[in-house]
Design brief:
Layout (H helix, E strand, L loop, with lengths): L1 E4 L10 H7 L11 E9 L16 H13 L2 E5 H6 L24 E4 L10 H4 L8 E4 L5 H8 L3 E4 L7 H10 L4 E4 L3 H9 L5 E7 L24 E8 L2 E7 L5
Parallel strand pairs: 2-7, 2-8, 3-4, 3-7, 4-5, 5-6
Antiparallel strand pairs: 1-9, 8-10, 9-10
């Protein structure tokens, strides 16, 4: 893997330590959450192949995926994506232990589910380690009985009345010490974060593949971005035709 932008010279192979520096979170967050998204898309904009993003991935994307999870305090994902992608607790084999000093060995997974339509008997809940229990963020709409059932296997955060208030959800994570937030989508959640001004940066892997007609984009749904959201390119890495881009999404981010 080599760095294309900003140019650094002959393009030497990047070490894990150097990648961690390139993707480091700001050192001083002052108690506020910092939200980073990690997504993958084909060169024609397709965000999935066969309904899943895994078909777009490759060795380079998986390497950065592990680095980003290692750096994060928590991984935030929508319940639909968690089901479609068959989410499990973060696996130690994909984590860089040196990047987890002073924290649990793996980051917990936090699921957004306004009506609490999750199955607490799946591996995502039952296989999570005690120091990285799965977190479910829901709303006051969620049935009390279902909330109690989920709470047996996960930590539950109530954020919002009629649906999940994402700003309150992020604040709830931050008060629990989860300030470095990594969201892996899906596209509906990413669109809501962007529209709400809650997205600090986007890490986008561009896969050397044409997805063809049909697959949606990395932002979908009824949420709009009037005039678009300007972003600033931070860096571009390349490996075997994959382009790994990091964009800043807010002024000063």
């Amino acid at each position: 893997m080599r760095q294309l932008f900003p140019a650094t010279g002959p393009g030497a192979e990047l070490s894990t330590g150097r990648l961690a520096e390139l993707y480091a979170y700001p050192p001083h967050l002052g108690g506020e959450p910092w939200v980073r998204a990690n997504m993958v898309a084909a060169v024609d904009g397709a965000a999935s192949i066969g309904g899943r993003s895994g078909g777009l991935s490759g060795a380079a994307d998986r390497r950065i995926f592990g680095i980003l999870r290692s750096l994060a305090d928590v991984v935030l994902v929508g319940s639909g994506t968690a089901r479609a992608e068959h989410y499990r607790p973060a696996q130690p084999t994909s984590i860089e232990p040196a990047l987890r000093a002073g924290r649990p060995g793996t980051p917990p997974i936090a699921i957004i589910s306004g009506r609490l339509t999750v199955d607490p008997q799946t591996d995502l809940f039952t296989a999570a380690p005690p120091d990285a229990r799965t977190i479910v963020i829901t709303s006051e709409q969620a049935p009390a009985a279902q909330r109690a059932a989920v709470a047996e296997h996960a930590d539950v955060i109530v954020a919002g009345t009629d649906g999940v208030d994402l700003k309150a959800a992020l604040a709830g994570l931050a008060t629990r010490g989860y300030q470095r937030v990594l969201t892996e989508g899906g596209p509906h959640l990413l669109a809501e974060l962007a529209a709400g001004g809650l997205l600090d940066e986007l890490c986008l892997t561009i896969s050397p593949l044409l997805g063809g007609p049909g697959p949606g984009r990395i932002l979908v749904g009824s949420t709009s971005l009037p005039g678009g959201l300007p972003v600033t390119l931070g860096h571009v890495l390349e490996d075997a035709g994959f382009l790994l881009c990091r964009y800043r999404c807010r002024p000063g981010a």
